[in-house]
């Protein structure tokens, strides 16, 4: 199954999600990689990572870009050669990109009980005591983790901590928009985020709040 979902959250912004079901060989067909990316994919030991990497190049093609339009800075953040912004994510058999005319970040996470063990490293667990059951806690923690991850991709500053510097305002599952704040090096930056859930996964994408 090629393109899984396309979303237009606002004018000038598109989200593309791919469900990786094709073979690595199929995904390589018609795709030309830069020397840097050829080295990256050839060094990947995981087959799903290699397939995910190539599926992202198909997502880029949906937006009219090729691999040679993409470059990475010293922090590993992806950029496009033109004036558009891009963010990339992958988790197990799903990959996604967001392309926009403003700074953006995106993250996909699988909803797993493993997140309960690491939650105290990125958010105060006391904020979740009112949730009805463990499944609801896992869902909400996954949204919060994805929100902080997507904000981190926009902010992209060394030393930025998920627990210490990024705060996600409490929200309900029914909320169309959630909000986050970064307080770092005496500066406060606010973000607006949207999320969706599908097939046991959570996708969160974020924008700077004007």
Automatic annotation (TrEMBL):
Gene3D superfamilies: 4'-phosphopantetheinyl transferase domain (3.90.470.20). It comes from the Bacteria. GO terms for molecular function: holo-[acyl-carrier-protein] synthase activity; magnesium ion binding. SUPFAM superfamilies: 4'-phosphopantetheinyl transferase. Pfam families: ACPS. The keyword Transferase applies. Transmembrane segments: none annotated. InterPro entries: 4-PPantetheinyl_Trfase_dom, 4-PPantetheinyl_Trfase_dom_sf. Keywords: Transferase. This is 4'-phosphopantetheinyl transferase superfamily protein. Residues 103-189 form the 4'-phosphopantetheinyl transferase domain. The keyword Transferase applies.
């Amino acid at each position: 199954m090629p393109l899984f979902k396309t979303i237009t959250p606002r004018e000038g912004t598109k989200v593309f999600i791919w469900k990786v079901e094709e073979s690595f060989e199929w995904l390589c067909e018609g795709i030309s990689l830069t020397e840097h990316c050829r080295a990256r994919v050839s060094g990947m030991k995981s087959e799903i990572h290699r397939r995910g990497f190539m599926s992202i190049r198909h997502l880029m093609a949906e937006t009219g870009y090729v691999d040679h339009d993409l470059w990475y800075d010293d922090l590993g953040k992806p950029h496009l050669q033109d004036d558009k912004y891009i963010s990339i994510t992958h988790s197990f058999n799903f990959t996604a990109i967001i392309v926009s005319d403003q700074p953006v970040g995106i993250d996909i996470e699988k909803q797993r009980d493993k997140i309960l063990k690491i939650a105290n490293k990125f958010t105060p667990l006391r904020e979740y005591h009112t949730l009805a059951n463990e499944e609801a806690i896992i869902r909400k923690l996954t949204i919060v983790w994805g929100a902080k991850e997507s904000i981190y991709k926009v902010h992209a500053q060394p030393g930025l901590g998920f627990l210490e510097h990024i705060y996600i305002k409490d929200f309900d599952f029914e909320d169309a928009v959630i909000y986050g704040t970064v307080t770092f090096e005496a500066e406060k930056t606010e973000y607006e985020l949207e999320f969706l859930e599908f097939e046991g996964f959570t996708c969160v994408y974020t924008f700077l709040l004007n």
